[in-house]
Amino acid sequence: MSLTARFLLRPLQWSERALDAVMQPVVFAGMAALIGVITLQIVSRVFFTAVGWTEEVARFLLVWITFLGATLAFQRGRHIAVTFVVDALPLRLRQLARITAVLVSLGFMIALIVIGYRYMQVQSFQKSASLRLSMTYVYAVIPIAAAVMAWYALVDLVELLLGRTEESPP
Fold first, then answer.
1. What pLDDT is attached to residue 164?
2. Residue 166 in domain
3. For residues 142 and 79, what is the distance between their CA atoms, to the nearest angstrom?
4. Which residues are paired to 127 by β-bridges?
5. How confident is the model at residue 77 (pLDDT cuts 50, 70, 90)?
6. Using CA atoms in the order 122, 128, 132, 134, what is the torsion angle rounded to 10 degrees?
7. Which of 66, 102, 116, 150 is the 20 to 30 Å CA partner of 89?
8. Is the pLDDT of residue 73 over 80?
């Protein structure tokens, strides 16, 4: 890879690592909070009067953890993929197939940002049953996670266009 390509990629890769460094503890904290809330729910039902808001908080945490965890899986290439056909292609066709796949993913993420934002606006009048929390905060994870995945896809696209292949180290 040329010096110019490395110079262009360095800030993008730094931003990707910084975003990843933020997402990991947020997902971990969400998991810890989910475990705490579910434990409280079980203990309160068994020994005391059930705490009503725990089921709702657990559901909302699960939604947020799922979407934010999906961003981490996307960044690491851990989503389900069938690659045996692409892996059998010659190097140039393989790179073209990967660029096409990243472009399709990027297009999907951009559409999800727009649709998720609109859905968030449409549901803004709705309040949750127990906490009376605006559902805007629950649905906000859709465009946020899609934007993070779109950024990861954009960095991947730039890497592929500048010639970094899966065989060459980052």
1. 64
2. no
3. 17
4. 134
5. confident
6. -30
7. 150
8. yes
Rounded-to-integer distance, Cα 160 and Cα 145, Å: 22
Residue 81 — pLDDT band, cuts 50, 70, 90?
confident
Does the pLDDT at position 159 exceed 70? yes
First to last CA, the chain: 10
What the block records as the tokens of 111 is 């559409």
Q: What is the pLDDT of residues 135-155, one digit of tens each?
A: 999 999 999 999 999 999 999
The alpha-carbon radius of gyration of the chain (Å, integer) is 20
Collapsed DSSP state (helix, strand, coil) of residue 145: helix
Question: Using CA atoms, how far apart are residues 109 and 148, in angstroms rounded to an integer?
Answer: 9
Distance (Å, whole) CA 108 – CA 119: 16
SS3 state of residue 134: strand
The torsion of the CA quartet 163, 110, 16, 71, rounded to 10 degrees, works out to -120
* 169 domain-assigned: no
Report the DSSP beta bridge partners of residue 134: 127
In a domain, 129, yes or no: yes
Give, to the nearest 10 degrees, the angle between helix 141-161 and helix 3-47. Answer: 150
The domain containing residue 46 runs over which residues?
3-161
Give the count of domains, the chain: 1
Helix (H), strand (E), coil (C) string for 21-66 = HHHHHHHHHHHHHHHHHHHHHHHHHHHCCCCCHHHHHHHHHHHHHH
